[in-house]
Amino acid sequence: MAPTLKLVYFDVMARGLPLVMCLEHGGLEYEAKNVLRGDLDWAAMKASDDAPFDQLPVLFVDGKPIAQTAACAHVIGKIAGTDGGDDIADYAVSSMLISETEDIYKDLAKGAVTQFKELGDRAEDNKAMWAEAFPKHYAMLEKLVVAGGDAFTSTGVSVGEFYLWSILHQVSLMAGEAGKTSLDAFPKLKAFYDRVASMEKTKAVLEGKTAMGPSLWGQYFIE
Ligand SMILES: N[C@@H](CCC(=O)N[C@@H](CS)C(=O)NCC(=O)O)C(=O)O
User: Fold this and answer.
1) Any idea where the GST C-terminal domain is (predicted)?
2) Whose C-alpha lies nearest to ligand 1, atom 17?
3) Which of 36, 54, 55 to mutate to test the pocket of ligand 1 (most atoms within 8 A of CB)?
4) Cβ neighbours of residue 176 under 8 Å, at least 6 residues apart?
5) Each residue of 81-118: pLDDT tens digit?
6) Together in a domain, 13 and 32
7) Is residue 98 domain-shared with residue 136, that is, in the same domain?
């Protein structure tokens, strides 16, 4: 029997988007709680054993809390059968993409202006993020796009791909506003991004038609 799943997160895309993408594209039933919407008391949850590292997201699998976004994605992939499974090459690529996305996330955390963090004395970090970090990540990813010119795995629907897409999407929203890094210079990566963006389940996620509800998708990273 499929395990029961409950995702707890805040009111922003950030680390919620990759997990909702993995859950929805994996065709899994899940309950979602948004602590900023008041679905539950985050302070009380933090004080309990339900937040293993005092942070969100937390994915409850049959009531057991799993923390760390990457770990949650791996678990979702295993449950949904979208982690590459017995195909070791696909499994490896999907796993690599999850770790690579975390590296991009680190650059964002260092250089980006967010809903809650102003630029302050990080002007150089912000410049380096746009001029060096993103182009370098994108160029390396471009070389890994293989299947059909718009996918990284033989299925094109692994958790690693949805995880990566979720951060590309958030960077694209920033880039759209600031006009600083565009996927246009990386045609295969762009084809991948566009393919996933055009999927019906992705559209439903972005339109807020998921268990997380319409209020989830505030843009966390601004510029
Ligand atoms: N390494 C963790 C980082 C999680 C994290 O930074 N969570 C932030 C929100 S994105 C958080 O819970 N902040 C609220 C708090 O610390 O109270 C992961 O991958 O999930």
Assistant:
1) 87-215
2) 55
3) 55
4) none
5) 999 999 999 999 999 999 999 999 999 999 999 998 99
6) yes
7) yes
